[in-house]
Design a protein that fits this description.
Blueprint (H helix, E strand, L loop, with lengths): L7 H16 L3 H8 L3 E10 L5 E12 L5 E8 L4 H17 L5 E8 L7 H14 L9 E5 L5 H15 L23 H16 L8 E5 L3 H13 L2 E7 L2 E4 L6 H11 L9 E3 L1 H5 L5 E4 L18 E3 L8 H9 L3 E3 L1 H4 L2 H15 L5 H25 L4 H20 L4
Parallel strand pairs: 3-4, 3-5, 6-7, 6-10, 10-11, 11-12
Antiparallel strand pairs: 1-2, 2-4, 7-8, 8-9
Helix pairs in contact: 1-3, 1-14, 3-14, 4-5, 6-7, 6-12, 6-13, 12-13, 13-14
């Protein structure tokens, strides 16, 4: 293992253990909450366009369902592993609890490189994987959603596959779908809108004005690109962006709408006019007020934490900061809004979509954004209050709230039989 890089599951366990210790949880409760409830590994064939049959491995992990059905995204990536799924499922449990949504945590993924696959191959992969995990998923048991390298179209194929097995349409089995088949207004922007709300609230607490803030965003996928637009609308100056091809930088600010158009036309940001090309590593260390990692885990480690120049770190990605990096950043006075709060806007509006599908009654986008704003701002304030009461940081404040809520539900329900 590279020095400073941490297995995501080890990271999730370390964070939980610290919260459990502070809460004084019993050893029995700690043992229950440390483990996933279910871990499904599937190996399945997919016929490729060439006629060749290729084997793929997929996972679906449910961490805890004591507060409601399991909820969590599905990612397609060559980096997918069982430990990553365990970590992300556990983080989903805490994420749902910290914003008060009645779901437990789950995560799924397929080990593959979707960028090398045709649309037809992706459809066959999606449908076969959905079939393999159909023994776990369902509108009352486990509701998947999009994640890295999956999108509304992939969710449509999976929802259709499940519905074909049932013999009737089941829109509530999946969230993040297109509007035409039961998707929700506001879902595509939801995670980024949550990022915007917590950034605004954190800036207030730090007496920082958005109009005087330089922002760097790592990742230009759905979350990163929309966060760039919404933070720009908030008044922030976006000075650095990055995607899979590397980073772009302009001290005087990047026109986000130009960047969005350029990325759509060219497939990445490389060569964006009026910007300087930099590496992804250099991007994280740029002079700025706010840094938003919106890519992968383990991006800020002990190796680069000492060179981070931001005053405020908003974790739009899951697990971007390792615990040893976090200690360095806190010692330097950096404020971190943790992932289980910062990127919870997506699962919040996924919850709204699920409720709308079950009721067959849909809300206007203004109503959805209003409800999201209320939940995210209220959750941020609750986390801030808990952190101040316990004289700790925002991450531990969020964990203390979330773990206590899940532990309470587990305690009340008891151990069966």
């Amino acid at each position: 293992m590279v020095v400073g890089i941490m297995n995501p599951y080890e990271m999730a366990i370390a964070q939980f253990d610290e919260a459990a210790e502070r809460l004084g949880l019993s050893q029995a409760m700690r043992a229950i909450l440390r483990k996933s409830k279910r871990e499904l590994i599937v190996n399945f064939p997919v016929r490729m366009d060439s006629g060749e049959v290729q084997m793929f491995t997929g996972y679906r992990v449910q961490h805890n369902i004591n507060r409601g059905p399991a909820k969590g995204g599905i990612r397609f990536s060559s980096e997918v592993s069982l430990d990553e799924m365990r970590a992300l499922a556990m983080w989903m449990t805490w994420k749902c609890a910290v914003v008060g949504i009645p779901f437990g945590g789950a995560k799924g993924g397929v080990v593959c490189d979707p960028h090398t696959m045709s649309r037809n191959e992706l459809e066959r992969l999606s449908r076969r994987y959905a079939t393999e995990i159909s023994i776990l998923i369902g509108p009352n048991s486990d509701i998947p959603a999009p994640d890295m390298n999956t999108n509304p179209q992939v969710m449509s194929w999976m929802m259709d596959t499940y519905s074909m097995h049932m013999g009737y349409s089941v829109p509530a089995v999946i969230t993040g779908k297109p509007l035409a088949i039961g998707g929700s207004e506001g879902r595509l922007e939801a995670t980024a809108r949550g990022v915007q709300v917590v950034t605004r609230e954190a800036l207030k607490d730090l007496n920082m004005s958005p109009e005087r803030c330089a922002v760097v965003i790592q990742g230009f996928g759905n979350v990163g690109s929309i966060s760039a637009r919404l933070l720009s609308e908030l008044g922030c100056k976006i000075v650095g962006l990055s995607d899979i091809a590397g980073g772009v930088y302009n001290l005087n600010g990047i026109d986000v709408m130009t960047a969005l158009r350029y990325s759509r036309e060219h497939g990445n940001l490389h060569g964006l006019p009026n910007t300087e090309h930099i590496t992804n590593a250099e991007l994280l260390e740029l002079p700025c007020d706010v840094l938003v990692p919106a890519a992968l885990e383990n991006q800020i480690t002990a190796r680069n934490a000492g060179r981070i120049q931001a005053r405020l770190l908003i974790e739009a990605a899951n697990g971007p900061t390792t615990p040893d990096a976090e200690a360095i950043l806190y010692a330097r006075g950096v404020t971190i809004v943790p992932d289980i709060l910062a990127n919870a806007g997506g699962v919040t509006v996924s919850y709204f979509e699920w409720v709308q599908d079950l009721q067959r009654f849909f809300w206007e986008e203004d109503e959805i954004n209003r409800r999201l704003e209320l939940i995210m701002s209220r959750s941020y304030r609750a986390v801030r209050q808990k952190a101040e009461e316990q004289q700790t940081n925002l991450r531990m404040g969020a964990y203390l709230l979330a773990v206590a809520r899940v532990a309470e539900a587990t305690e009340i329900r008891g151990v069966y039989p």
